[in-house]
Amino acid sequence: GVPVFFVLSGFLITYLMLREQEGIGSFSVLRFYTRRALRIWPLYFLVLLFGFVLFPLLRSLVESGPYQETASALYYVLFLSNFDQIRSHALPYGVGLGPTWSISVEEQFYLAWPLLLVLFPRRRFLAPIGMVLLVALILSPLMELPREHTLFSMIYLSVGAAFGYASFYHEEIVARLTRTSDLVPLGVAVAMVAAMYLTTEIRAYFLIPVIGALVAYLVVHQCFTRGFDLSRIPVLERTGKYTYGLYMYHSICIFAVHVLFHDMLAVPDSAFLVVLAQPLLALLLSGLAAYGSYRW
Q: Which residues, at least 6 apart from 113, have a Cβ–Cβ distance to it below 8 Å?
């Protein structure tokens, strides 16, 4: 899911920045930073509070052994948790902290991307998009960068940005390319899943831009399609507002459900419990938490 998230983010942020710059004749970096901070920071720091403070306290109530956290709180507060996880070669012990690496990458992207637009406004913005993509494609395999590294993630983000740029300035061409039979995006989706699976089995850097392009095609297809449009499915359209919360809360809720069944209720493992009951309850709790934090 993270590659999809990065590609979609690169696409949307680039498209929206260009629309603002062309629409009103200028682009406000300060307004952009403010909007992103209000959207990301409250929930992000709430998860940090749980992982670094509340979880150790709760654990101390049920376990007497020493608590050893591998994560550095400073890295996480500064949105550098991806580099902290690379440094420690391990996920943090605190529940909820693991998924924050991708949010840190996003924040680093949000910090730099609007500044590039100011330096290369309007149609000239294609130049830094291409340069960033080229550098990421060359250095990622050369340095054997892990997926958590910002430069590696910039492959996905800049591919999405390139499609966002093309969709804004060459809308008719992109629309014609994506208004195809519904079998085409289905085939693209199958190819995307297959490529993602291959990257889990082998260290194939050459597949990363391919995955990015396949994901970007599906994003653009949904923007311009006259056929199968996922936004017509009410549940999916409404759920889109809560995806950030679902992502941030899911590991905490999975842990809570595990504690409930195994430690509090002492329910023995079974196929029904592991495959159906626990995942569904964790999903329900994640959804409720995401809905609550979005509304309030």
A: 13, 14, 17, 161
Instruction: Give the chain's length.
Output: 296
What one-character-per-residue DSSP string does 23-45 give?
A: HHS---HHHHHHHHHHHHHHHHH
The alpha carbon torsion through 15, 20, 22, 25 (nearest 10 deg) reads: -160
Residue labelled with tokens 């920071």: 41
The token pair that represents 6 in the structure block: 């990065």
Assess contact for 220 and 174: CB atoms under 8 A. Answer: yes
Half-sphere exposure of 242 (CA within 13 A, CB side): 22
Q: pLDDT tens for residues 222-277?
A: 888 767 777 677 777 678 888 999 999 999 999 999 888 988 888 888 888 888 99
Helix (H) or strand (E) holding 167, with range, is helix 150-169
Q: Which of 282, 215, 289, 148 is nearest to 12 (CA)?
A: 215
- Spatial contact of 150 and 107, defined as CB atoms under 8 Å apart: no
- Give per-residue pLDDT as tens, 86-142: 999 888 999 999 999 999 999 999 999 999 999 999 999 999 999 999 999 999 999
Which two three-digit tokens encode residue 259? 């504690």
Greatest mean pLDDT among 66-70, 75-79, 266-270 lies in: 75-79
| Spatial separation of the C-alpha atoms in residues 158 and 30, rounded to whole Å | 22
Residues 6+ apart with CB under 8 A from 158: 10, 129, 132, 133, 136
Dihedral of alpha carbons 197, 279, 147, 14, sign: positive
Instruction: Report yes or no: 149 and 139 within 8 Å, Cβ to Cβ.
Output: no
Closest CA to 263 of 62, 95, 94: 62
